[in-house]
Amino acid sequence: SWSIFEDQILYQLLVFLQPPSRHSFRLELFCGTHLPERCSNIRVVLECSCWRTTGDIPCFVHPSKDSETAQRSPLLQTLCTGSYLDVEEVACWVQNSVQTAWQHSPQRQHWQLTVLPSSHSCRLLLSGPSDMQLCAVLVFAVEQGSP
User: Fold this and answer.
1) Where in the sequence is the domain holding 28, given as residue range(s)?
2) Which superkingdom heads the taxonomic lineage of this protein's source (predicted)?
3) Above 70 in pLDDT, residue 11?
C-alpha cells in the first residue's frame, strides 16, 4: 500500500520470506487454536538431502561419513533463536544488507538513505534533491502452506 502525507510518500511492502534449499518453514499454532501473529512461531525445519543428487553439498540432518556430526545450518546460526525464525535478527540482517547495497548504488549521489530504527520490520527513508521524502516499510511474512 502507499499513502501521501504532506512532504512524504509512505510505501508499505509485504516481503514474503522463502526458506533456502534444504530448509522449510512451519507455522506453529498458538495454543492449538489460531495462527501466530509473530515470527517467533515460525519453526525452521532442516530437511534431509542424503538421497538427493547434491554433489558436495552436505546434509544438515545426518552426519557425513567423514564427520561425527551433522553440518550446521547458516540460517539457524544467523537468523534464528533456537529452531525458530527471529524477526529481530531478520530485520537487522535486511537493514544491514540494504545499507551495504546502497553503497554501490548510483542513486546515492543524489539521494540519502537513512535506515530508521525498527525491530520487527525494515524502515527506510530516502531524502533527495526535492523536499519530498520517500519512506518504505518492509514487513516480513511467511506464506501459510509454503514448502
Assistant:
1) 2-142
2) Eukaryota
3) yes
